[in-house]
Amino acid sequence: MNPHRRLVLVEDHRLFRAGVRSELDASIEVVGEAATVAEAIPMIRELDPDVVLLDVHLPDGTGQAVIAAVAPDRPGVKFLALSVSDAAEDVIAVIRAGARGYVTKTISGPELSEAVHRVAEGDAVFSPRLAGFVLDAFRGVEGVASDPELDLLTAREREVLQLIARGYLYKEIAAQLHLSVKTIESHVSAVLRKLQLSSRHQLTRWAVERRLI
Amino acid sequence: MSTVGARLPAALARLTRRREEGLLGGVCAGLARAARVDPTLLRLVFALLAFAGGAGLVAYAAAWIGLPDEGQAPPRRARRWLGVALLGVGAVVALRSSGVADSLLWPAAIVAAGTLLALRQPGGASRSQLTARTVAAAGLVIGGSLLLLETATSGASGGFLVAPAALVVVLFLVVGPWVWRLARERDTERLERIRAQERADMAARVHDSVLQTLALIQRSADDPRRVAALARRQERELRAWLYGGPAAGDGETLGRALVESLADVEELHGVRVELVQTGDVQLDEPLRALVLAVREAVTNAAVHAGVPEVFVFADVGEAEVSVYVRDRGAGFDRGAVPADRRGIVDSIEARMTRHGGTAAVRSTPGEGTEVELRLPLEAS
After folding, report:
1. From edge to edge, which strands make up the β-sheet containing A125-126?
2. CATH domain A125-213 topology
3. How far is A147 from chain B (nearest CA, A)?
4. Cα gap A112→A23, rounded to integer Å
5. Which of A85, A128, A162 lies closest to B274 in CB terms?
6. Residue A211 to residue B7: CA distance in whole angstroms
7. How far apart are CA A81 and CA A103, in angstroms?
8. B96 — contact with chain A (CB < 8 Å)?
9. Between chains, do A132 and B243 touch, taking CB under 8 Å as contact?
10. pTM of the predicted structure, to 2 decimals
């Protein structure tokens, strides 16, 4: 059984918040709801939840602004980005700001609950679309990497991302590759870390082309 | 829209002296700040003009009297006019001392008066008043210019070329930055107009598409499938418009063809197709066949799998394109499919083989199906 998790919901549509609240499973308690960046920052500081489910676009700013303001003094809080946006710049920017994952608003209740638990445990959550963006970002000529540790995906990581892009769940990927779910999780976390830390030439150019920097 | 003339007094009103930064009265420091140039440059200009019969001194005094000190209340109207008059005297002195003959000076003064008249359009004036002023100003400028031209061609004055040239340079230094700033303000205005236009376009767009769809949805509230299809189509249109993406791309690419083709399937069969693509490529004949095969595979999933969602991942690599169509639905046993159901064999496998590609179908009853399509890219 999943451990009890405290969640703050930052999202400006009241109806959508109500929908999320009713769909999350019983192990996740919504302890606070905020509709704006200005409301969210003091609320997260005060409540110190396990996970913040964070809309990328808020009326008075972006999800990144919330992460940037809160993350330094609340390192234990994990952020899961939630968006209807298909735009690569929104998704990658919020991940690079420190979110542990990205899901689209069409996600089903059980999948969202699983994503919240996964993020709370410190793992990463990639939607098929995010996996596609990441594959695109790290694609390109090999050997231009200044820091291969950060700038290149391993063959295994690429394989895992491709399976996520194909719509596989972690346990399905594990079965397909004859690995444990834990191993898949650590591969995805490694990719997340590279995405957040790499200053790779290709990634930078890719980001510039999409006006991320 | 405000005119250039309406801004001249405003621009003058913004000029101040900056006493604590200045050497004397802070005139040069203040002007330099407004014009965003080095104060030393202006000090040099005034010093040079001082040699033109003392014009620089007169102009400096005029500015000292006419301009308010930074942070102080602006000087009274009379004091401002005294400053302007002194400035005029300075200009006349400078011109005469630098060898400009009276025959040149007066036409120039007429042109200057005309220009001033043109630039100082009072705010509350009626249309006919404005027209009269403009006509008068234009008359003065043109008349003065003609007189100037006549004097110049008749060669009345010997050494009149050098000194006026110097004055033109000085004028350019003083007026140039101000004109440049005016031009920039006009740019800002144009940008604002463009933004207003964009907002209007957006409102029109929302009205034509989103509001219409919402009305349709309300009328079809008893048909959930139609509601879902309407909402999905609207979502797609809105996305394409907001984020660009393959649907807004130029030319025929694989990405665009897939988006369009899968949108059709979504609408026809009421499923949601999650398309993820990396890279893209111009569409050619074999790739068109690939799109048709993908469409067939997604349709199969929509019809037989019994799940609301189908995943499509298209990966454009260096040498080949691979597309995966996956559902987490009913699945099937290949051997149990009746021989007359030719969809997979004809529409997918044979089509791919004809164009040099491959197709593989993996399915497990109860777990779902994945169709893998591969097509080598022709070296171009």
Report:
1. A28-34, A5-10, A51-55, A78-83, A101-104, A125-126
2. Arc Repressor Mutant, subunit A (1.10.10)
3. 24
4. 8
5. A128
6. 37
7. 6
8. no
9. no
10. 0.58
Min distance A184 CA to chain B CA atoms (Å): 19
What ranges do the domains of chain A cover? 1-122, 125-213
Alpha carbon distance B31, B39 (integer Å):
8
* Architecture of the domain defined by A1-122: 3-Layer(aba) Sandwich (3.40)
pLDDT digits (tens, 9 = 90+) for A140-167: 645 455 566 666 788 899 999 999 999 8
Closest CA of chain A from B250, distance in Å = 17
Which residues from chain A sit within 8 angstroms of residue B272, using beta carbons? 106
pLDDT tens, residue by residue, B258-276? 988 888 888 888 788 889 9
Does residue B122 carry a pLDDT above 60? no
Contacts of B243 in chain A (CB under 8 A): 85-87
C-alpha to C-alpha distance for B152 and B104, rounded to whole angstroms: 8
CA B242 to the chain's CA centroid: 17
- Asked if A209 is an interface residue toward chain B (Cβ–Cβ < 8 A), one would say no
Closest-CA residue of chain B to A136? B278
* Confidence at B164, pLDDT banded by 50, 70, 90: low
Q: Are B319 and B303 in contact, with CB atoms under 8 Å apart?
A: no
